[in-house]
Structures are given as structure tokens and as C-alpha cells.
Design goal:
Layout lengths: L8 E6 L12 H4 L3 H9 L2 E8 L6 H16 L5 H12 L6 H12 L4 E6 L9 H14 L4 E7 L9 H15 L3 E7 H4 L6 H13 L3 E3 L2 H10 L10 E5 L3 E2 L8 E4 L8 H8 L12 E6 L9 E3 L7 H7 L3 E7 L3 H7 L11 E6 L15 H14 L2 E7 L1 H6 L4 H24 L3 E5 L2 E2 L18 E9 L11 E2 L3 H8 L16
């Protein structure tokens, strides 16, 4: 069955735009937002519950954005692969995983080295320390004699310049378990690139396979030396740990096993493709066995320890009806509208199209007030003019500004977003369309400078706006809703039934 959308239908997600009391810390209430106010005063609106975002580049703020987009896109509550892995670690199920145990046993039998590659951090966004420790224990119990850990350094989802602390903790844990050596260290800027900068990935590949990079006898000392040179965790260039006389602790060679222990997939694509997938370019790669902790890419054909827990998302449901879903956001937010919005996996729809506005080259400008908002709006307006699709627009500027802890900067960002929202609605309304406006998480309504060590891993609940501009006369929105209710509401607007997996309910009355 094919369904068509004759008039524009848009979902606009304003990151960080929470509902709260008027205080000196509420950037949304302080800001001048004539377009947002007019839309919410004119059309049916309500307040829904969802995740909040805390100030600072912290695991709680990151989790809130990710969980919020997942709830909106799938119509159900859930925390994705990371939540499943965390539960498996706590229950002991992780160490009983048949895929991992089989691959470890096979590697031991053929005399290969076991390489564990992933982020060493307590951020919880891309990896868990518990995953790495479980793999070390599994290797020890299986009788392995040689396990090399290749550490990717964080500094984004954790406080900067803390990688040395995490490496020290790892060394203590390896001594306690009785197995494992740090073989290399490298910042996530190189090892987890998602922008197609293959020259960065190539440097990590040559470090892993050929032992090329800065030489150091001690990982903690190497990181601290980088700090002294003004290089933060994420930008640490490849460092090969050596034992006298200048011999690499371990490189990846034919017959070895590589286990990637990051649970979030999109940042592992390039590294896994370069190391574990065959190609016809350059020198032959070592023939190795590989295991991905979660489904990084269905096309890789590699063993997966914890199979995809993805569900049919809005993207898939609209695609099954022959309706394209066009998503527009800043490039840095790409995972939020793809991996998370699609329910923690690759979309099944071939009609998904992503329009990514390049992120600023200067990292400091990422929290600038405008943060490419006008460019995002321009791209979205172009989609409206073409018609025939569900348009999903993510405006991250306010949330990015809030991460600075500056009320003034966040107020400015909120006002930029408001201007863009007004322009987008003007074009949608001119075509007789409808626009659903909501937020993925809160944060801008309570700007505070927070200590990452005081923040909880799980995001709290906050109050978020929901309005349907252009809703047919006589229709209203029910109260007591939540973010998972948005997907069934959108589907009813398009005349499509929700999937049985969606726990949310339509708020249309």
C-alpha cells in the first residue's frame, strides 16, 4: 500500500527547549520568541514529559538528547543498545555470551592475540568500563595468555584531561583480573571519526597493524606528556606502547582476534571497515577474526555479540508506505536523527534522506549562538518546496549554547531558533501544511554550571512543549502526554496506523 502526503508535514525538534518557571536561569522565558509564542497561542498545544539536559558536555546531557530522539522516533520508551549492554553486565549475561566465548576460544586454539579496541572512559555514551572488564575476565577464564587493549581516549563525554585517570584505573583492574596490557592509545578525533576523514582513520590503522606512531613505555605518562603540550584527550595522536628494546607490545597480525567493545555503532564504522573488512586497495590486510559488540552495520557481515534491538521507527513506517523521510540537522547531530531516531539501528527504509549542514571547523563555535540555525532552516524550506515527504528538522543551537553554562549565550541562541521557526512555518502554512513542534529534552529552562561528577547517569524527566500548527479546526491535543506519544500522533495525522511495538498513544482528540 502506498500513501501520499499532498501537503507539507513537518516535525521540528528544538533541542534543550524545556518548559519551566520564569527565573533568571530560564533562557527560554527570558528570550524574545514572538514566532514560537504566536504558534503556541494560535494552535492546540500541551506539555509532555521527557528527558532533561544538564549543563556541560556530560554523559547526562548526551544521554538526554539521545534518549529523547529515540522516544520521538520510535513511539516507545527505551535506552537502546547501551541500556541492554549495561543490564547484561549487571546480570552476568555478558560473560556468558556465546559469540564472544566462541571467538575467544578459537583465537586461543590457533595461538592468536586477543585485541580489545574501544573507548576507555566512564562517559557511558559509547562504551562501558564494565564491557572491557568483562572481556578481560572472559579471556582469563578461557585460558588466554595474551590480551592487548587499544585505548581510545574520550574528553568529550567526560571532563577534558581525565584520560590518565581512566588509564590508571584500567591498569589496576587488569592487575586485579590477572590479564591484559595496554598496547596503544589514541584520541577519539582519530579513531572515531564520522566525517569521512579517512586520513585520520589511516593513522589509527597503521598504529594498530604496523606499530607506527609516537613511542612510549608507559600509557599514563604518554597522556600526561600530551597534556603538558596542550593536547587534550580526544586529540592525542597515535601512541604505540613499547617494551625494551623499542618493541611494540602488540600489533594486529594474521590469526589474531579483534573485539570492538564500543556499543554505539556510528563512530566505529570507519575504523572497523579499515581493519576488519577486506578491500582491493593498498597492501594486503592481516587476516583476522572480528567481533562487534553491537550491530555496527548490517552490511559488514561480522559476528555481533549483542544483536540489534532496533524496532520499526517513524522512518521505517513512512517508508513502508512509499513516503520519503527527509531529515535536516547539523552534521554533529547526525546520530540523533539517524541511529537514535531510528530506534538504535540502521533504518530499514530506502526512502530516508539526510541533509547535513556542515559543522563549524572551530570546536568553540559549536556552542556559538547561531550554530548554523539559518542554514538548517534554509535546507528545510527547500524540502518543503519539493513536498511529498515527512520533514524532520532538528534545531540544536539552544542546547549547544546551554552546554556553555551561559544564560546570555543561550538566550541569543533561543532567539535565533525562534526566527528560523517562524520562517519555516511561514513556508509550510503557505502550502496548507502542518508542523509539529516539540523538544527532545530540556535544559535551556534551567541554565547552571554543573560538576560532571555530581550528575546521574540516567536523565531526569522534564516538561517539554508540543504544538501542532495547522491542525484541522475542531481537533485538540490531550494532556498528560510524553515523548513516545508523538510518533502515534504523527501517524494518525498521516492516516497511518502505528505499529504494535509503539507504546505511545495518539494525543489527537
Amino acid at each position: 500500500m502506498t500513501t501520499s502526503i499532498e501537503r507539507p508535514l513537518a516535525l521540528v525538534i528544538l533541542d534543550g527547549w524545556g518548559v519551566g518557571e520564569a527565573t533568571g536561569h530560564n533562557a527560554v522565558r527570558i528570550a524574545h520568541t514572538p514566532h514560537f509564542d504566536a504558534i503556541f497561542e494560535t494552535f492546540p498545544s500541551c506539555v509532555v514529559s521527557g528527558a532533561t539536559g544538564l549543563s556541560g558536555r556530560t554523559r547526562s546531557g548526551s544521554a538526554a538528547a539521545e534518549v529523547g530522539h529515540m522516544m520521538i522516533g520510535t513511539g516507545r520508551s527505551g535506552f537502546g543498545d547501551g541500556h541492554r549492554i549495561e543490564q547484561a553486565i549487571a546480570s552476568g549475561e555478558f560473560e556468558q555470551n556465546a559469540v564472544i566465548r566462541t571467538q575467544i576460544s578459537d583465537a586461543i586454539e590457533r595461538g592468536g592475540t586477543i585485541h580489545l579496541i574501544g573507548m576507555v572512559s566512564d562517559g557511558g555514551v559509547h562504551s562501558f568500563a564494565g564491557s572491557l572488564y568483562s572481556l578481560l575476565r572472559m579471556s582469563r577464564k578461557a585460558g588466554a595468555s595474551d590480551v592487548a587493549v587499544h585505548c581510545i581516549l574520550d574528553g568529550v563525554d567526560t571532563s577534558p584531561r581525565t584520560a590518565d585517570i581512566h588509564l590508571e584505573a584500567l591498569e589496576i583492574k587488569m592487575a586485579d583480573i590477572g590479564i591484559g596490557r595496554i598496547a596503544s592509545i589514541v584520541g577519539r578525533h582519530f579513531a572515531m571519526d564520522t566525517g569521512g576523514h579517512w586520513e585520520r582513520t589511516a593513522r589509527v590503522y597503521t598504529m594498530l597493524v604496523h606499530g607506527e606512531g609516537e613511542r612510549a613505555e608507559d600509557a599514563v605518562t604518554a597522556v600526561r606528556n600530551s597534556f603538558l603540550r596542550g593536547i587534550a584527550d580526544e586529540f592525542v595522536a597515535p601512541v604505540v606502547i613499547v617494551s625494551a628494546p623499542d618493541h611494540a607490545v602488540a600489533t594486529v597480525k594474521t590469526g589474531d582476534l579483534v573485539i570492538y567493545f564500543n556499543h554505539r555503532p556510528e563512530t566505529m564504522h570507519q575504523l572497523v571497515r579499515s581493519l576488519s573488512l577486506p578491500d582491493n586497495q593498498g597492501a594486503p590486510k592481516p587476516e583476522i577474526a572480528s567481533v562487534c559488540l553491537t550491530e555496527y552495520d548490517r552490511g559488514f557481515g561480522l559476528p555481533v555479540a549483542f544483536g540489534s534491538g532496533s524496532v520499526d521507527s517513524l522512518t521505517d513506517v513512512f517508508g513502508s508506505k512509499g513516503i520519503a523521510v527527509v531529515k535536516v540537522t547539523q552534521a554533529e547531530r547526525y546520530p540523533h536523527l539517524t541511529y537514535f531516531f531510528n530506534g538504535g539501528g540502521e533504518s530499514l527504509s530506502q526512502l530516508e534522506r539526510n541533509v547535513l549542514v556542515p559543522a563549524p571547523r572551530d570546536d568553540l563555535d559549536l556552542i556559538g549562538a547561531e550554530s548554523r540555525s539559518f542554514k538548517i532552516a534554509d535546507e528545510a524550506i527547500g524540502v518543503v518546496r519539493n513536498g511529498g515527504s515527512l520533514l524532520v528538522v532538528n534545531m540544536p543551537a539552544a542546547a549547544l549554547a546551554a552546554e556553555s553554562g551561559s544564560v546570555e549565550r543561550t538566550v541569543e541562541a533561543v532567539q535565533f531558533v525562534d526566527t528560523c521557526l517562524g520562517g519555516l512555518w511561514r513556508h509550510i502554512s503557505a502550502e496548507g501544511g502542518q508542523m509539529v513542534v516539540t523538544a527532545s529534552h530540556g535544559g535551556c529552562e534551567n541554565i547552571t554550571e554543573s560538576d560532571p561528577s555530581d550528575m546521574e547517569r540516567s536523565p531526569e524527566l522534564s516538561r517539554l512543549p508540543l504544538c501542532i500548527a495547522g491542525l484541522a479546526s475542531g481537533r485538540q491535543l490531550g494532556s498528560d502526554g510524553s515523548l513516545p506519544d508523538i510518533a502515534p500522533t504523527l501517524l494518525e495525522m498521516a492516516g497511518i496506523a502505528p505499529t504494535p511495538e509503539m507504546t505511545g498513544r495518539s494525543l489527537l482528540r
